[in-house]
Batch of 2 targets.
Target 1
Amino acid sequence: MQAVILAAGRGKGMLNLTNSIPKPMLKINGKPLLEHKIEILPGEIKEIIFVIGYRGEYIMDYFGHEFKGKKIRYIFQKNRNGTGGAVHLARMFLENKFLVVYGDDLYRKKDLQKLTKHGLAILARETDDPSCFGIIKTDRKGNLLEITEKPKKSKEKLAVVGIFMLNKKFFDYELVSIGKGEFGLPQTLVKMAKDYPIKIIKATRWHPINNPDDLKAAEQAINEFI
């Protein structure tokens, strides 16, 4: 199986911390975020496809073409056209089933393992502040119905945390525009969910990293994600 890791962004919320390196290369306990991410990938992941952009050479120099027994491939996202656009860049290299992982935030390995047992699935976590995230609405069976981006008020509390189990049927669907020339992966999955059940899997832990304070907190919480 393959994993596509989206790591093209600078991370403007990190302020001057990303003046010279991309956000996914910021370190927690001496290791880049991306290395922590590789360490929690399920064992069946044999190849990683990094979608890189801002200061992507730092990622290439660090991980090379093989890292901790996994083959590494790089794709440059010249036009920052969103998460949907990033996944489409990897299309020609993908086999049928693949994992998509956002390049920031911390997750637990056991949650990723649960996700890979499904054909199509999204990892989610309850949040007290829906206005900061994409919020999921499910049907009675726990499958995806809708995703509302950063609602001011919402009865729903499940947030998209940035990990998806997909297959190549995803590429049969036209990408959904989310404005400013970007196309959203979660929003396109809502369209796909009308034809195929996409299971929502609840994460046991998730640490979003959006600013320097989140990064400091991650230093204290890292042992919970090993």
Target 2
Amino acid sequence: MTTLIHAPADRDTLKRVIREKIGDRLFVVVSNREPYIHRQREGRVTVQQPASGVVTALDPMLQTCEGLWVAHGSGTADRKVVDERGRIRVPPENPQYTLKRVWLTKEEEEGYYYGFSNETLWPLCHIAFTPPKFEERYWRLYQQVNQKFADTVLEEIGDQSAFVWVQDYHFALLPQMLKERRGDLAVAQFWHIPWPNPEVFRICPWGRQILEGMLGNDLLGFHVSRHCENFINSVEQMVEVRVDRQRPSIYHHGGIETQVRTFPIGVDFDQINRDVTRDFSKDEDLQSALKCLPEKCEYLAVSVDRIDYTKGIPESIEAMDRFFEKYPEMLGKFVFLRLGSISRIHIGAYKELNERINAMVEQINWKYAADNWQPVVFLRRELTYPEILVFYR
């Protein structure tokens, strides 16, 4: 196993490529976020696919290979639509694969997701100005939830041969947990965020356990070569291993190999270009989204980001202030539209960030707004893919 799967547009080609890589193994994806969310709205159950890069990339693969997706069941109506084992066939309109939902207690979600994943690993790996929190309680719940997912995956797989593709920093311990009980499984992981240099990473009290957990992978992928190099250096300094930098691979526990590779990921421009040419004029819900824009809008700049302190949102608003100071002729013509879903609001740093952004948007609009025009529009909610596309037309 030397490459992760790059998805071609044609479904038959995609199926052939996947089967060439994994043979007749069951294709299993594990992620925190689920590909379909069921919610209770106005007395009825609705289903929505989140605007997520992971979902956009992997959902077509699972549909093609009729695999299994294991994820946290987070929707308000998720429990209402599954069978007695927490499973449901998706997508709803044409079921192709099984979604297995894992239920977490509030304590587990608070400690594993909001705590260790996003107050420890997230700022640590991004080397953010927000310092990571190292709390024993968070670490204990992170271990507990990783074990819960390992138990679920192994129960669902049974005796089948499988390729398990683990997604992101929520499951650093999962690969080793799987391999300890099923050494025959093919396990790969893609780490969607940066990996810090070893001097930074070694401040984590549980750094060695995290590295050993990730070495349970047969293949470990990062976005860029710098992150691969940082990971290899971290392992070399903190774990007893042998490193082959030419492959590059890490050998551990008597010669077991973990390949470390770079897999840059970008958007599918051709598909987006096709989608954006669709006629949205008859969709009243999508047309109503455009009503947030001021009447005067000759030029529109659109930025889509989850509200996070790593995204540079305050800096972008400051840049708009500088833009209008430098080019006053654009006043009344240019609008900067920020589309940002609010996330992790339970975490103090995110709550403070939201308050700061609100104040900055209010200030710049007070400074420059004129009749039927304002320079910055900030839409704070989770948008569907079509809702985002309508602003690009």
